[in-house]
Amino acid sequence: MDTNSSALWSRCFPVYTEVGRLHEEDAVGDVKLVKAYFGSPQLHIPCSVEMGLGGGALLDIGVYCLQYILMVFKGKRTKSVHATGVLLDSVCEVAIMAIRWGICSAGKISHDFTVALKTLPQEDHQVVAVAARNLQRAEEFAQKHNIPTVYGSYEELAQDPNIDVVYVGTIHPHHLPVGILLMNAKKNVLIEKPLAMNLREVHELVATAKMNDVFLMEAVWTRFFPASLEISRLLSQETVGEVKMVRADFGVPLLNTPRSVEKELGGGALLDIGIYCLQFVLMVYGGEKPECIQATGVCLDTGVDESMVITLKFSRGRLAVCTCTVAVELPNDAIINGTKGAIRVPAHMWCPTSLIVNGKETPYPVPEPYLPLNFINSTGMRYEAEEVRQCVLKGLKESSRMSHADSALLAEIMDEARRQVGVVYSQDHQ
């Protein structure tokens, strides 16, 4: 700041001149501490609160406090600066441009996620690039979704400076290396579930995120549906009393789907779909670690689990039962039983569009897609995308609703269940 040319009128007042003279004469001795305050009610004044008008307390009036301190200390540069504050909602909304998304992998789930993003306001979310290991697939994906930039490698995507967040929709075993690649390039990432193949890999991803000071979240989209938020609200108000039992089922015939049954692709009922049942239970029980885990299952010739039943015991005698299978169709619902009633999530519990609370059903519809989807209710991915946006705008490095600790506990339980059933991946030996 050039105080000789800036209109800092305060410094020209006789009182300030006197302050300077007294300071020169050491009238108060060695100055150790200076405080300056300036506050006035200006929330009704547009130039003080609108980002487009250069508003904000610091630039509008706080500058007077800072210039006073710099005057007292004769313009010396500070050794450190620490600041804390509160942002106005209107300022946040006006100040930040759209979150610019990069899509990593041009598969089915990435298609659905991109369709979901297009249901959100364009001024909030924009898809600016897509990458696939096969350039032709990336080009076809980009043409379908009107994405301006195309890459034939994940490395190129990682180096794109015009991307704020990358959605990782690769197969499960690639989550770790791709996640590390992106985060080492200082990219915020939303990685499809499971976050990684095991707890060790989860820890490695979290450590990489912290080392690079970037945002990382496991894309457990279920947690961000309006119906899921309502479940949390109802539980906090003890609408059904003390919860004693939770049951969640997820079963669909996927034996002819390679990614669900091949070990090298990270297949298996638990990692592919059973994870939704477990995360539901942990959401209901507030992220508490179970006291006991008992799992039984049936494995395919490929070495992965075809079906699994997991019983979890929590403190105060509370139980949960999770059932998953890639062999047959299950009811695919979930129910929370408490001492004063029940909350039922009808099919499809992993992407809920209605709740039945003590017999009364309430719908929570998702938006219609602009292109056909590969998976049911996939426009509901919009909710996790908006969660990422809110976290990034606030400078957060993880979501409180699907935290790093939540992902670690989820992986820890799945590791133990797999151990009991006998499902071992190559990543478990590394």
Describe the structure.
- The chain has 430 residues and is an alpha/beta fold.
- It is 35% helix and 19% strand.
- It contains 14 helices and 14 strands.
- The strands form 2 sheets. It has an 8-stranded mixed beta sheet with strand order 8-9-10-7-11-12-13-14, with helices on one face. A 6-stranded parallel beta sheet has the order 3-2-1-4-5-6, with helices on both faces.
- A hairpin with a 3-residue loop joins strand 9 and strand 10.
- It is elongated, with a radius of gyration of 27 Å.
- The N terminus is likely disordered.
Q: Care to give the gist of this entry?
A:
By secondary structure, the protein is α/β, with parallel strands linked by helices.
